Amino acid sequence: MIAWRLRRAARSPLAPALLALALLGVDAGFYFTRLEPAKARASALAQDLMQRRADSAATRRAAPDENPQAELARFYSMLAPAPSVQDVLDRLHSAAADAGLAVQQAEYRPASEPGGRLLRHEIVLPLRGRYPEIRRYLSQVTREMPGLTLDSVSIQRANIAAETGEAQVRMTLFAQAGR
User: Fold this and answer.
1) Which residues of 73-92 are buried (b: 16+ CB within 10 A; e: fewer)?
2) Tens digits of pLDDT across the chain (179 residues)
3) Is 119 within 8 Å of 110 (Cβ atoms)?
4) Do 160 and 89 reside in the same domain of the chain?
5) H helices then E strands: how many in the chain?
């Protein structure tokens, strides 16, 4: 009996209108229970972000500017002195060995500027290993060695199934000159 009444109601000319009203009710319920609270939360988060940015800008303006000469002196003090550059290079090799990477023939080129306070050493490290180890190694050495910058990384694998690859890593080590 129920099935007969449902089929009869479905054939009624009012059935599409009733279905449309039901869908409209579901849509209105979704709007007021989900979308409206989400819009209010997004607005509150935007206001909070604007307030934090304003507070941060005010703090930066209120902080006394440090003497540029003092900032430069602090920068130079963070760098390794020239005689310990070999120690830094040894640390690069031992960190690679600890990470399980094979270091092939590496290249080191000093590039100092006449009269400058910085020595620049260009380093090219060909590494062989898995991508996660290469990435972990690069993160570790740049974090632990002030004055070491990562210039470029190129990684190649023999084929898509190969687990290990060869990386060509170019770095620059900045050190203090004349110490």
Assistant:
1) eeebeebbebeebeebbeeb
2) 888 887 887 788 887 888 888 899 999 999 999 999 999 999 999 999 999 888 877 766 655 556 788 877 777 777 777 656 778 788 888 999 999 999 878 888 888 777 777 888 899 999 999 999 999 999 999 988 878 899 999 999 888 888 889 999 999 988 887 64
3) yes
4) yes
5) 6, 6
Q: Are 105 and 161 contained in the same domain?
A: yes
What distance in Å separates the CA atoms of residue 80 and residue 83, rounded to the nearest whole number? 8
Number of Cβ within 10 Å of residue 136's Cβ equals 16
**In which residue are the tokens 């935007």 written?**
46
Q: Which amino acid is at 169?
A: V
Retrieve residue 62's tokens: 């209120």
Looking at the structure, tell me whether residues 54 and 95 fall in a common domain. Answer: no
Number of compact structural domains in the chain: 2
Q: Say if CB 102 and CB 125 are below 8 A apart.
A: no
- Residues 20, 101 within the same domain: no
Do 131 and 165 have their domain in common? Answer: yes
Domain that holds residue 41: 2-60
Do the domain assignments include residue 66?
no
pTM of the model: 0.56
